[in-house]
Amino acid sequence: MTDKHLYPVEPSVAERALLNREQYEEMYRQSIEDPDAFWGEHGKRLEWIKPYTKVKNTSFDYNNVSIKWFEDGQLNASANCLDRHLETRGDQTAIIFEGDDPSESRHVTYRELYEETCKFANVLKGLGVKKGDVVTIYMPMIVETGVAMLACARIGAIHSVVFGGFSPEALGARIANGKSRFVITADEGLRGGRTIPLKKNVDTALKNEAGANVDKVVVVSRTGNKDVPWNAGRDERYEDLMASASTDCPPEPMNAEDPLFMLYTSGSTGAPKGVLHTTGGYMVFTSMTHEYVFDYHDGDVYWCTADFGWVTGHSYILYGPLCNGAVSLLFEGVPSYPDSSRMGQIVDKHQVNILYTAPTAIRALMAEGEACMKGTTRKSLKLLGSVGEPINPEAWEWYHRVIGNSQCPIVDTWWQTETGGILISPLPGAVDLKPGSATVPFFGVLPGLVDSEGNLLEGKTDGNLVILDSWPGQMRTIYGDHDRFVQTYFSAYKGMYFTGDGARRDEDGDYWITGRVDDVLNVSGHRLGTAEVESALVAHEKVAEAAVVGFPHDIKGQGLYVYVTLMQGIEPSDELKKELVQWVRKEIGPIASPDVIQWAPGLPKTRSGKIMRRILRKIAANEHDQLGDTSTLADPSVVDDLIDSREFK
Ligand code: WT7
């Protein structure tokens, strides 16, 4: 590691920082040696209706996986985000809303957000929503989405937010899987100057199996388009219901282990699974990580560019920051609209101090050149964050130098939907930065690297990333399928949580995440299961078989490379390729659009019929010379055919 690639903690950062290296190490030591004492103390950062007397009760034993934190305590997540701030900061801004259209923005205070949430919580009750019911939220990035989430939390309903970019088919599958009886949506979304037909998509989704269970659809008016279809009796206007709702809605006392939300995410096999998070541990963990990782100080303006449809939006736009009484910026649009200076414009306009975004967004700006920051100073920035995929050192350096004016540390935060909050990341005042490294574990997090047999490896090494003990923000189960939870995360290496990622530990003990080692793709920071895209493709009448792999993509990180075997008698054509791209967009959504489709008369399979993706990945990446052992293939000649017919050799 040469000095050029090391960014030591700057004195100005150290001066402001909550913790220095010694303090971090001391707290980390305590958190690992005595988790009960450590979390027992830090759990007090929340307001509890009934204080807990027990702290950690967890088992990673394959035969009995069970995770409970603060299990006899009672609290309410929305009360922690709202009520308890009323006295001290009721008139302070909670959310800065920046619209898709740069001329539209507004500040929402803690008191306003509290009142809106209480009203909507009463509305939900009035519609028949009960504690434990699943409420699906399919919304744009507007204040009402946060209100809907908090209102669910207030009455003990489990929200299931579905990303607004998912297709009606994908939405319907999630509504059906969660047996959700309630859907909250908007007439239309606005993104990059275009409208997204959210309500229409909901109607389409509900025509199928999903519709049978749904009693009520609440529709927020975002664009006010009068042509939006209406289903009297089922559909309700948010504005009408809110007009007469009372602001008096005491928070439901929730057990620490009562569910707060579920969120669907892709795995290496099967349909997306509903990751279930509970209340107490999740709130302790997200608020604490938000404070320490972003070195959040009272009054800082904090902007996380994620969408509410992903876990980052849950943990680091809503729950973590609001629990800490932060000013959280909520952006409806995209960084490229009206032009690529938008990110810098927003930073200057709202004097943003902390910016948390994804490598794919940075690379897209980088491709525009430094001109995209012209006309903005970004002088207010103190700290930058990165999340969602490995950040290549080149993008890291550009983020640091161009966006951050070489003045801001970058926290490269590694975590997952399943982990609830950040597990590996530098703390700004404590850890020297290395572009591309997520560096050190957060308090209470015990990472390990194992070989394929599950042997723990010591010192400087590569390996599969596991976590050896529970942390409070961990998911508790897969909604409705605890066996799948155990199989997915605890069966590969007994007694350990397997992340699905590979990582390297360097001579200083710092971690470098190298990416997924399973059949999960990371496209622009969004997770996609290869199996999910394949099953969408084979549902097309002309497709006999399909195999999907990732390949290196300059902006998206990974692109989708698809091998398709057509049904007997079907002629390949460019029109058919377009049709298949449209088909996948319809089945899943635009994020799953194939980048390359290659016709494959045959796929490389083992004699037992398993597709050898390792070989397909090499062909996609144009590394035919590194195919490795192909002797176990049933028919090795299919590989030569695929290489010969590859389009851009
Ligand atoms: C996967 C989790 C965490 C919220 C957003 C994505 C990859 C995430 C990093 C990082 C390298 C990263 C991993 C992980 N990932 N952050 N800082 N460096 N890789 O959540 O959709 O659950 O995806 O994203 O591969 O397993 P997710």
TrEMBL record:
Its cofactor is Mg(2+). Acetylated. Deacetylation by the SIR2-homolog deacetylase activates the enzyme. Residues 532-610 form the AMP-binding enzyme C-terminal domain. CoA binds at R191, G192, G193, R194, T312, S524, R585. It is an enzyme of class 6 (ligase). Residues 83-467 form the AMP-dependent synthetase/ligase domain. This is Acetyl-coenzyme A synthetase. The lineage of its organism: Bacteria, Pseudomonadati, Pseudomonadota, Gammaproteobacteria, Pseudomonadales. The gene is acs.
